[in-house]
Amino acid sequence: MALHILITGGCGFLGARLARTLLAQGSLALAGAAPQPIGRITLADRAPPPSDLQTDTRIAFAGGDLLDQIEAGQLPLADTQLVYHLAAAVSGECEADFDLGMRSNLDATRALLQACRAGGNAPVFVFSSSVAVFGDSPEQPLPEVITDTSLPTPQNSYGSQKFIGEQLVADFTRKGFVQGRSVRLMTVSVRPGRPNGAASGFLSGMLREPLAGERAVCPVPPGTAVALASPARTVEGLVRAATASAAEWGPRTAVNLPSLTTTVGEMVAALERIAGADATALIDWRHDPQVEKIIASWPSRFRPARAQALGLQADGSIDALVRDYVRENPGAVRAPLRG
Q: Which residues are part of the catalytic machinery?
Protein backbone atom coordinates (compact mmCIF):
# COMPACT_ATOMS: atom_id res chain seq x y z
CA MET A 1 0.00 0.00 0.00
CA ALA A 2 1.40 3.42 -0.96
CA LEU A 3 1.60 6.18 1.64
CA HIS A 4 -0.36 9.39 1.23
CA ILE A 5 1.19 12.39 3.02
CA LEU A 6 -0.13 15.90 3.63
CA ILE A 7 2.23 18.81 4.34
CA THR A 8 0.58 22.08 5.35
CA GLY A 9 2.80 25.02 4.52
CA GLY A 10 4.25 22.56 2.06
CA CYS A 11 5.38 25.10 -0.54
CA GLY A 12 7.41 27.19 1.88
CA PHE A 13 11.12 26.70 2.31
CA LEU A 14 10.95 24.04 5.02
CA GLY A 15 7.91 22.23 3.61
CA ALA A 16 9.43 22.04 0.13
CA ARG A 17 12.72 20.75 1.51
CA LEU A 18 10.87 18.12 3.53
CA ALA A 19 8.90 17.07 0.43
CA ARG A 20 12.10 16.76 -1.62
CA THR A 21 13.70 14.66 1.11
CA LEU A 22 10.74 12.29 1.28
CA LEU A 23 10.54 11.98 -2.51
CA ALA A 24 14.25 11.22 -2.72
CA GLN A 25 13.84 8.46 -0.13
CA GLY A 26 10.91 7.01 -2.08
CA SER A 27 9.55 5.14 0.92
CA LEU A 28 8.97 5.66 4.63
CA ALA A 29 8.83 3.36 7.65
CA LEU A 30 5.85 5.07 9.27
CA ALA A 31 5.74 4.85 13.08
CA GLY A 32 8.19 1.96 13.12
CA ALA A 33 6.31 -0.19 10.61
CA ALA A 34 7.84 -1.77 7.52
CA PRO A 35 8.83 0.74 4.81
CA GLN A 36 6.06 1.65 2.38
CA PRO A 37 6.41 3.45 -0.96
CA ILE A 38 5.34 7.09 -1.04
CA GLY A 39 2.46 7.36 -3.48
CA ARG A 40 1.34 10.97 -3.05
CA ILE A 41 2.39 14.09 -1.18
CA THR A 42 -0.22 16.86 -1.04
CA LEU A 43 1.27 20.30 -0.46
CA ALA A 44 -1.28 22.70 1.07
CA ASP A 45 -0.26 26.34 0.83
CA ARG A 46 -1.25 29.73 -0.50
CA ALA A 47 1.58 29.83 -3.07
CA PRO A 48 2.17 27.10 -5.67
CA PRO A 49 5.01 24.56 -5.34
CA PRO A 50 8.51 25.28 -6.66
CA SER A 51 8.93 24.21 -10.27
CA ASP A 52 10.89 21.04 -9.48
CA LEU A 53 8.07 19.75 -7.27
CA GLN A 54 5.38 20.70 -9.78
CA THR A 55 6.86 18.29 -12.30
CA ASP A 56 6.88 15.29 -9.93
CA THR A 57 3.80 13.13 -10.55
CA ARG A 58 3.67 12.18 -6.86
CA ILE A 59 2.99 15.82 -5.87
CA ALA A 60 -0.53 17.24 -5.55
CA PHE A 61 -1.22 20.88 -4.71
CA ALA A 62 -4.06 22.24 -2.57
CA GLY A 63 -4.01 26.02 -2.94
CA GLY A 64 -5.64 28.57 -0.67
CA ASP A 65 -6.08 29.62 2.92
CA LEU A 66 -5.58 26.57 5.16
CA LEU A 67 -8.50 27.16 7.50
CA ASP A 68 -10.83 27.80 4.56
CA GLN A 69 -9.66 24.58 2.89
CA ILE A 70 -10.23 22.55 6.05
CA GLU A 71 -13.70 23.97 6.64
CA ALA A 72 -14.64 23.29 3.02
CA GLY A 73 -13.42 19.69 3.24
CA GLN A 74 -10.90 20.19 0.44
CA LEU A 75 -7.97 18.29 2.00
CA PRO A 76 -7.65 14.52 1.32
CA LEU A 77 -7.55 13.43 4.97
CA ALA A 78 -9.67 10.29 4.73
CA ASP A 79 -6.89 8.43 2.89
CA THR A 80 -3.86 10.24 4.37
CA GLN A 81 -1.62 8.27 6.73
CA LEU A 82 0.83 11.06 7.65
CA VAL A 83 0.16 14.75 8.27
CA TYR A 84 2.93 17.32 8.69
CA HIS A 85 1.44 20.52 10.07
CA LEU A 86 4.04 23.20 9.29
CA ALA A 87 1.78 26.09 8.28
CA ALA A 88 1.88 28.99 10.75
CA ALA A 89 2.05 32.71 11.21
CA VAL A 90 5.53 33.48 12.54
CA SER A 91 6.60 35.17 15.77
CA GLY A 92 6.87 38.80 14.66
CA GLU A 93 3.58 38.59 12.76
CA CYS A 94 1.80 37.19 15.82
CA GLU A 95 3.01 40.03 18.03
CA ALA A 96 1.95 42.62 15.46
CA ASP A 97 -1.43 41.03 14.66
CA PHE A 98 -2.96 38.99 17.49
CA ASP A 99 -5.99 37.90 15.47
CA LEU A 100 -3.82 36.64 12.61
CA GLY A 101 -1.81 34.49 15.00
CA MET A 102 -4.89 33.07 16.68
CA ARG A 103 -6.51 32.22 13.34
CA SER A 104 -3.42 30.76 11.71
CA ASN A 105 -1.82 29.02 14.68
CA LEU A 106 -4.73 28.05 16.92
CA ASP A 107 -7.95 27.91 14.88
CA ALA A 108 -6.31 26.16 11.90
CA THR A 109 -4.51 23.63 14.11
CA ARG A 110 -7.68 22.71 15.97
CA ALA A 111 -9.66 22.48 12.73
CA LEU A 112 -7.01 20.25 11.14
CA LEU A 113 -7.01 17.91 14.12
CA GLN A 114 -10.82 17.76 14.02
CA ALA A 115 -10.69 16.95 10.31
CA CYS A 116 -8.21 14.14 11.00
CA ARG A 117 -10.58 12.85 13.67
CA ALA A 118 -13.47 12.93 11.21
CA GLY A 119 -11.34 11.09 8.65
CA GLY A 120 -11.30 8.14 11.02
CA ASN A 121 -7.89 6.63 10.20
CA ALA A 122 -5.78 8.12 13.07
CA PRO A 123 -2.87 9.40 10.97
CA VAL A 124 0.57 10.11 12.35
CA PHE A 125 0.37 13.86 13.00
CA VAL A 126 3.70 15.73 13.19
CA PHE A 127 3.22 19.25 14.55
CA SER A 128 5.98 21.82 14.11
CA SER A 129 6.18 23.51 17.49
CA SER A 130 8.92 25.88 18.57
CA VAL A 131 11.58 26.78 21.10
CA ALA A 132 9.30 29.77 21.74
CA VAL A 133 7.15 27.63 24.06
CA PHE A 134 9.89 28.37 26.62
CA GLY A 135 10.29 31.86 28.01
CA ASP A 136 11.95 33.77 30.81
CA SER A 137 9.86 35.61 33.37
CA PRO A 138 10.45 36.93 36.90
CA GLU A 139 7.94 34.44 38.29
CA GLN A 140 9.40 31.45 36.40
CA PRO A 141 13.02 32.10 35.36
CA LEU A 142 14.44 29.90 32.63
CA PRO A 143 16.78 27.19 33.88
CA GLU A 144 20.34 27.48 32.60
CA VAL A 145 19.80 24.38 30.46
CA ILE A 146 16.45 23.21 29.08
CA THR A 147 15.86 19.48 29.46
CA ASP A 148 13.06 17.20 28.32
CA THR A 149 11.15 17.87 31.54
CA SER A 150 11.53 21.68 31.65
CA LEU A 151 8.22 23.52 32.02
CA PRO A 152 7.12 25.55 28.96
CA THR A 153 6.43 29.17 29.96
CA PRO A 154 5.82 31.11 26.73
CA GLN A 155 6.23 34.89 26.90
CA ASN A 156 4.79 35.90 23.52
CA SER A 157 1.71 35.14 21.46
CA TYR A 158 3.50 32.84 19.03
CA GLY A 159 4.93 30.70 21.81
CA SER A 160 1.58 30.56 23.59
CA GLN A 161 -0.20 29.47 20.41
CA LYS A 162 2.39 26.78 19.74
CA PHE A 163 2.11 25.45 23.29
CA ILE A 164 -1.68 25.33 23.02
CA GLY A 165 -1.21 23.42 19.76
CA GLU A 166 1.01 20.92 21.56
CA GLN A 167 -1.68 20.34 24.17
CA LEU A 168 -4.32 19.83 21.49
CA VAL A 169 -2.09 17.30 19.73
CA ALA A 170 -1.51 15.52 23.05
CA ASP A 171 -5.22 15.28 23.85
CA PHE A 172 -6.26 14.17 20.36
CA THR A 173 -3.53 11.52 20.68
CA ARG A 174 -4.78 10.42 24.09
CA LYS A 175 -8.25 9.96 22.60
CA GLY A 176 -6.86 7.91 19.70
CA PHE A 177 -7.88 10.39 17.00
CA VAL A 178 -4.27 10.89 15.77
CA GLN A 179 -0.81 9.59 16.56
CA GLY A 180 0.69 12.92 17.57
CA ARG A 181 4.32 13.99 17.68
CA SER A 182 5.10 17.64 18.43
CA VAL A 183 8.59 18.65 17.35
CA ARG A 184 10.02 21.79 18.97
CA LEU A 185 12.10 23.38 16.22
CA MET A 186 15.07 25.58 16.95
CA THR A 187 15.69 28.76 14.92
CA VAL A 188 16.54 27.51 11.43
CA SER A 189 19.62 29.16 9.97
CA VAL A 190 20.63 29.79 7.30
CA ARG A 191 17.29 30.01 5.49
CA PRO A 192 17.58 30.82 1.79
CA GLY A 193 15.28 33.27 0.03
CA ARG A 194 13.87 36.54 1.27
CA PRO A 195 13.26 37.72 4.85
CA ASN A 196 10.04 36.71 6.61
CA GLY A 197 8.18 38.20 9.56
CA ALA A 198 9.82 36.07 12.24
CA ALA A 199 11.51 37.92 15.10
CA SER A 200 14.40 35.49 14.62
CA GLY A 201 14.61 36.12 10.86
CA PHE A 202 17.74 38.26 11.23
CA LEU A 203 19.62 35.12 12.36
CA SER A 204 19.52 34.06 8.73
CA GLY A 205 19.55 37.51 7.15
CA MET A 206 22.74 38.66 8.90
CA LEU A 207 24.57 35.80 7.12
CA ARG A 208 22.55 35.37 3.93
CA GLU A 209 22.45 39.02 2.82
CA PRO A 210 26.18 39.79 3.27
CA LEU A 211 27.02 36.57 1.43
CA ALA A 212 24.90 37.96 -1.43
CA GLY A 213 26.70 41.31 -1.25
CA GLU A 214 23.70 43.03 0.35
CA ARG A 215 23.33 44.95 3.60
CA ALA A 216 21.72 43.31 6.63
CA VAL A 217 20.44 44.52 9.98
CA CYS A 218 21.27 42.91 13.31
CA PRO A 219 18.85 44.18 15.99
CA VAL A 220 20.48 42.58 19.07
CA PRO A 221 23.89 42.86 20.81
CA PRO A 222 26.79 40.57 19.82
CA GLY A 223 26.65 38.71 23.12
CA THR A 224 23.09 37.47 22.54
CA ALA A 225 23.05 33.67 22.86
CA VAL A 226 20.85 31.68 20.47
CA ALA A 227 19.98 28.06 19.65
CA LEU A 228 20.26 27.25 15.94
CA ALA A 229 19.72 24.28 13.65
CA SER A 230 20.52 23.99 9.97
CA PRO A 231 17.77 23.20 7.46
CA ALA A 232 19.22 19.71 7.02
CA ARG A 233 19.17 18.89 10.75
CA THR A 234 15.65 20.32 11.06
CA VAL A 235 14.24 18.17 8.26
CA GLU A 236 16.08 15.18 9.70
CA GLY A 237 14.17 15.72 12.95
CA LEU A 238 10.83 16.02 11.15
CA VAL A 239 11.41 12.78 9.24
CA ARG A 240 12.48 10.92 12.39
CA ALA A 241 9.32 12.09 14.16
CA ALA A 242 7.30 10.22 11.53
CA THR A 243 9.38 7.03 11.53
CA ALA A 244 9.81 6.54 15.29
CA SER A 245 7.74 3.77 16.79
CA ALA A 246 5.41 4.57 19.68
CA ALA A 247 7.89 2.95 22.07
CA GLU A 248 10.79 4.98 20.68
CA TRP A 249 8.86 8.26 20.81
CA GLY A 250 7.53 7.67 24.30
CA PRO A 251 4.33 8.80 26.03
CA ARG A 252 5.05 12.56 25.95
CA THR A 253 4.16 13.96 22.56
CA ALA A 254 6.60 16.91 22.44
CA VAL A 255 10.35 16.55 21.82
CA ASN A 256 13.04 19.26 21.83
CA LEU A 257 15.26 18.93 18.76
CA PRO A 258 19.05 19.24 19.21
CA SER A 259 20.56 22.69 18.72
CA LEU A 260 23.85 24.46 18.24
CA THR A 261 24.37 27.06 20.95
CA THR A 262 26.22 30.14 19.72
CA THR A 263 26.13 33.92 19.98
CA VAL A 264 25.41 36.59 17.44
CA GLY A 265 29.02 37.74 17.75
CA GLU A 266 30.27 34.22 17.01
CA MET A 267 28.05 34.15 13.93
CA VAL A 268 29.65 37.35 12.67
CA ALA A 269 33.12 35.94 13.35
CA ALA A 270 32.26 32.82 11.34
CA LEU A 271 31.02 34.96 8.46
CA GLU A 272 34.31 36.87 8.48
CA ARG A 273 36.34 33.66 8.49
CA ILE A 274 34.42 32.42 5.45
CA ALA A 275 33.75 35.59 3.46
CA GLY A 276 36.10 38.22 4.89
CA ALA A 277 35.76 41.61 6.53
CA ASP A 278 34.01 43.13 3.50
CA ALA A 279 31.06 40.82 4.19
CA THR A 280 30.79 41.62 7.89
CA ALA A 281 31.04 45.35 7.09
CA LEU A 282 27.63 44.98 5.42
CA ILE A 283 25.97 44.30 8.80
CA ASP A 284 24.23 47.32 10.35
CA TRP A 285 23.91 47.06 14.13
CA ARG A 286 20.54 48.67 14.71
CA HIS A 287 19.07 47.92 18.12
CA ASP A 288 15.40 46.89 18.24
CA PRO A 289 14.18 46.53 21.85
CA GLN A 290 11.08 44.55 20.88
CA VAL A 291 13.05 41.97 18.90
CA GLU A 292 15.69 41.76 21.61
CA LYS A 293 13.00 41.16 24.24
CA ILE A 294 11.57 38.23 22.27
CA ILE A 295 14.94 36.66 21.44
CA ALA A 296 16.29 37.12 24.97
CA SER A 297 13.25 35.36 26.43
CA TRP A 298 14.01 32.17 24.46
CA PRO A 299 16.46 29.57 25.80
CA SER A 300 19.77 28.97 24.07
CA ARG A 301 21.04 25.82 25.80
CA PHE A 302 19.36 22.43 25.63
CA ARG A 303 20.04 18.89 26.82
CA PRO A 304 17.82 16.97 24.35
CA ALA A 305 18.22 13.42 25.67
CA ARG A 306 15.04 12.11 24.01
CA ALA A 307 16.02 13.46 20.59
CA GLN A 308 19.52 12.05 20.96
CA ALA A 309 18.05 8.64 21.84
CA LEU A 310 16.25 8.85 18.48
CA GLY A 311 19.63 9.28 16.78
CA LEU A 312 19.37 13.04 16.22
CA GLN A 313 22.37 15.34 16.68
CA ALA A 314 23.08 19.06 16.53
CA ASP A 315 25.16 20.80 13.87
CA GLY A 316 28.87 20.66 14.64
CA SER A 317 29.77 24.35 14.44
CA ILE A 318 28.57 27.72 13.20
CA ASP A 319 31.24 27.59 10.48
CA ALA A 320 29.84 24.27 9.22
CA LEU A 321 26.34 25.72 9.24
CA VAL A 322 27.42 28.70 7.08
CA ARG A 323 29.44 26.49 4.72
CA ASP A 324 26.41 24.20 4.27
CA TYR A 325 24.40 27.21 3.09
CA VAL A 326 27.17 28.28 0.69
CA ARG A 327 27.42 24.77 -0.76
CA GLU A 328 23.65 24.38 -1.18
CA ASN A 329 22.97 27.87 -2.57
CA PRO A 330 25.89 28.79 -4.84
CA GLY A 331 23.71 31.06 -6.97
CA ALA A 332 22.87 33.22 -3.94
CA VAL A 333 26.49 33.85 -2.94
CA ARG A 334 28.26 36.88 -4.43
CA ALA A 335 30.93 37.51 -1.83
CA PRO A 336 34.43 36.14 -2.53
CA LEU A 337 35.04 33.22 -0.19
CA ARG A 338 38.13 32.30 1.74
CA GLY A 339 39.61 28.85 1.36
A: 158
